[in-house]
Amino acid sequence: MAVMITSECILCDACALECPVAAILDENSEKNPKDAMYYVKPESCVECVGHSDTPRCAEACPTEGAIVWDMPYTVAFEEYFISGNEEGKYGIRVHNKKGMMLPSVKEQPYISTVSQADRESHANLGNW
Ligand code: SF4
Ligand code: SF4
Predict the structure, then answer these.
(1) Which ligand is nearest to the CA of 66?
(2) pLDDT number for residue 127
Protein backbone atom coordinates (compact mmCIF):
# COMPACT_ATOMS: atom_id res chain seq x y z
CA MET A 1 0.00 0.00 0.00
CA ALA A 2 0.15 2.65 0.71
CA VAL A 3 -2.83 4.62 1.55
CA MET A 4 -6.30 3.61 2.64
CA ILE A 5 -9.75 5.13 2.22
CA THR A 6 -11.99 5.24 5.28
CA SER A 7 -15.70 5.45 5.99
CA GLU A 8 -15.35 9.26 5.99
CA CYS A 9 -15.38 9.05 2.18
CA ILE A 10 -18.25 10.98 0.59
CA LEU A 11 -17.95 9.28 -2.83
CA CYS A 12 -17.01 12.46 -4.68
CA ASP A 13 -14.66 10.74 -7.18
CA ALA A 14 -11.96 13.43 -6.97
CA CYS A 15 -9.21 11.01 -5.88
CA ALA A 16 -9.78 8.36 -8.53
CA LEU A 17 -9.41 10.90 -11.31
CA GLU A 18 -6.01 11.95 -9.97
CA CYS A 19 -4.40 8.57 -9.33
CA PRO A 20 -1.54 8.03 -11.83
CA VAL A 21 -1.75 4.23 -11.61
CA ALA A 22 -5.53 3.72 -11.49
CA ALA A 23 -5.29 2.21 -8.00
CA ILE A 24 -8.59 3.65 -6.75
CA LEU A 25 -11.90 1.88 -7.30
CA ASP A 26 -15.32 3.45 -6.85
CA GLU A 27 -18.04 2.03 -4.62
CA ASN A 28 -19.70 0.17 -7.50
CA SER A 29 -16.65 -1.72 -8.74
CA GLU A 30 -16.97 -5.49 -8.53
CA LYS A 31 -13.37 -5.62 -7.34
CA ASN A 32 -14.04 -3.26 -4.43
CA PRO A 33 -14.39 -5.30 -1.20
CA LYS A 34 -15.79 -2.33 0.72
CA ASP A 35 -19.37 -1.09 0.84
CA ALA A 36 -20.24 2.57 0.29
CA MET A 37 -16.73 3.93 0.01
CA TYR A 38 -13.94 4.16 -2.48
CA TYR A 39 -11.09 1.65 -2.17
CA VAL A 40 -7.35 1.77 -2.81
CA LYS A 41 -5.83 -1.39 -4.24
CA PRO A 42 -2.74 -1.89 -2.06
CA GLU A 43 -1.06 -4.04 -4.70
CA SER A 44 -1.25 -1.12 -7.15
CA CYS A 45 -0.70 2.03 -5.07
CA VAL A 46 2.81 3.45 -5.43
CA GLU A 47 2.22 6.36 -3.01
CA CYS A 48 2.73 8.51 -6.13
CA VAL A 49 6.50 7.86 -6.01
CA GLY A 50 7.88 8.81 -9.41
CA HIS A 51 4.72 10.75 -10.27
CA SER A 52 4.35 13.50 -7.70
CA ASP A 53 6.03 14.83 -4.54
CA THR A 54 2.96 14.03 -2.45
CA PRO A 55 0.04 11.60 -2.91
CA ARG A 56 -2.26 13.12 -5.49
CA CYS A 57 -5.38 11.47 -4.10
CA ALA A 58 -4.95 13.20 -0.76
CA GLU A 59 -4.38 16.56 -2.41
CA ALA A 60 -7.64 16.17 -4.31
CA CYS A 61 -9.73 14.82 -1.43
CA PRO A 62 -12.04 17.39 0.22
CA THR A 63 -12.79 15.25 3.26
CA GLU A 64 -10.66 15.25 6.42
CA GLY A 65 -9.74 11.70 7.43
CA ALA A 66 -11.00 10.02 4.27
CA ILE A 67 -7.52 9.04 3.06
CA VAL A 68 -5.04 7.75 5.62
CA TRP A 69 -1.67 6.02 5.69
CA ASP A 70 -1.34 2.26 5.60
CA MET A 71 1.70 -0.02 5.62
CA PRO A 72 4.22 -0.12 2.79
CA TYR A 73 3.43 -2.82 0.27
CA THR A 74 6.64 -4.73 0.98
CA VAL A 75 7.58 -8.26 2.01
CA ALA A 76 8.07 -7.09 5.59
CA PHE A 77 4.29 -6.58 5.74
CA GLU A 78 3.29 -9.68 3.80
CA GLU A 79 1.43 -11.23 6.76
CA TYR A 80 -0.35 -7.95 7.48
CA PHE A 81 -1.80 -7.87 3.98
CA ILE A 82 -2.65 -11.58 3.97
CA SER A 83 -4.58 -11.12 7.24
CA GLY A 84 -6.30 -8.01 5.95
CA ASN A 85 -7.29 -9.84 2.80
CA GLU A 86 -8.77 -12.71 4.81
CA GLU A 87 -10.73 -10.21 6.91
CA GLY A 88 -12.16 -8.53 3.82
CA LYS A 89 -10.25 -5.31 4.42
CA TYR A 90 -8.49 -5.79 1.09
CA GLY A 91 -9.37 -7.59 -2.12
CA ILE A 92 -5.92 -8.32 -3.47
CA ARG A 93 -5.89 -9.24 -7.13
CA VAL A 94 -5.35 -12.87 -8.09
CA HIS A 95 -3.30 -13.17 -11.26
CA ASN A 96 -3.95 -16.13 -13.57
CA LYS A 97 -0.36 -17.34 -13.46
CA LYS A 98 1.28 -15.52 -10.56
CA GLY A 99 -1.48 -16.11 -8.03
CA MET A 100 -2.32 -13.50 -5.41
CA MET A 101 -0.32 -10.36 -6.08
CA LEU A 102 1.18 -10.18 -2.60
CA PRO A 103 4.33 -8.13 -1.84
CA SER A 104 6.43 -11.29 -2.29
CA VAL A 105 5.23 -11.37 -5.90
CA LYS A 106 5.59 -7.63 -6.49
CA GLU A 107 6.54 -4.97 -3.97
CA GLN A 108 5.49 -1.37 -4.56
CA PRO A 109 7.38 1.87 -3.94
CA TYR A 110 6.56 3.84 -0.80
CA ILE A 111 7.53 7.15 0.79
CA SER A 112 10.29 6.24 3.22
CA THR A 113 9.99 9.46 5.25
CA VAL A 114 6.50 8.61 6.52
CA SER A 115 6.91 7.35 10.09
CA GLN A 116 5.89 3.86 11.09
CA ALA A 117 3.79 5.45 13.85
CA ASP A 118 1.77 7.40 11.28
CA ARG A 119 1.26 4.25 9.26
CA GLU A 120 0.22 2.14 12.23
CA SER A 121 -2.21 4.76 13.51
CA HIS A 122 -3.59 5.32 9.98
CA ALA A 123 -2.87 9.03 10.30
CA ASN A 124 -4.63 11.41 7.95
CA LEU A 125 -2.60 12.21 4.85
CA GLY A 126 -3.77 15.78 5.07
CA ASN A 127 -1.59 16.23 8.16
CA TRP A 128 1.53 14.86 6.55
S1 SF4 B 1 -1.10 7.63 -3.22
FE2 SF4 B 1 -0.95 8.01 -5.45
S3 SF4 B 1 -0.77 5.94 -6.33
FE4 SF4 B 1 -1.64 5.68 -4.25
S5 SF4 B 1 -3.85 5.71 -4.50
FE6 SF4 B 1 -3.21 7.83 -4.02
S7 SF4 B 1 -2.98 8.79 -6.05
FE8 SF4 B 1 -2.97 6.55 -6.39
S1 SF4 C 1 -11.64 12.24 -2.90
FE2 SF4 C 1 -11.93 11.62 -0.75
S3 SF4 C 1 -14.15 11.80 -0.37
FE4 SF4 C 1 -13.84 11.83 -2.61
S5 SF4 C 1 -14.08 9.69 -3.27
FE6 SF4 C 1 -11.90 9.98 -2.86
S7 SF4 C 1 -11.60 9.39 -0.70
FE8 SF4 C 1 -13.80 9.66 -1.03
Answers:
(1) 2
(2) 60
How would residue 128 be classed by pLDDT, with cut points 50, 70 and 90? Answer: low
Scanning 3-107, the segments in alpha helix (DSSP H) are 14-18, 56-60, 78-86
**Total-model pTM:** 0.95
Q: Cβ neighbours of residue 73 under 8 Å, at least 6 residues apart?
A: 1, 2, 42, 43, 45, 81, 103, 107, 108, 110
Q: Is 111 in the pocket of ligand 1 (CB under 6 A)?
A: no
Residues 20-46 pLDDT 10s: 999 999 999 999 998 889 999 999 999
Question: Over 70: is that where the pLDDT of 95 sits?
Answer: yes
* Residue 102 beta carbon below 6 angstroms from any ligand 2 atom: no
Ligand 1 midpoint to CA 120 (Å): 18
List, in order of start, the domains of the chain with CATH numbers. 3-127 (3.30.70.20)
Closest CA to 60 of 110, 17, 105: 17
Cβ–Cβ < 8 Å for 21, 56: no
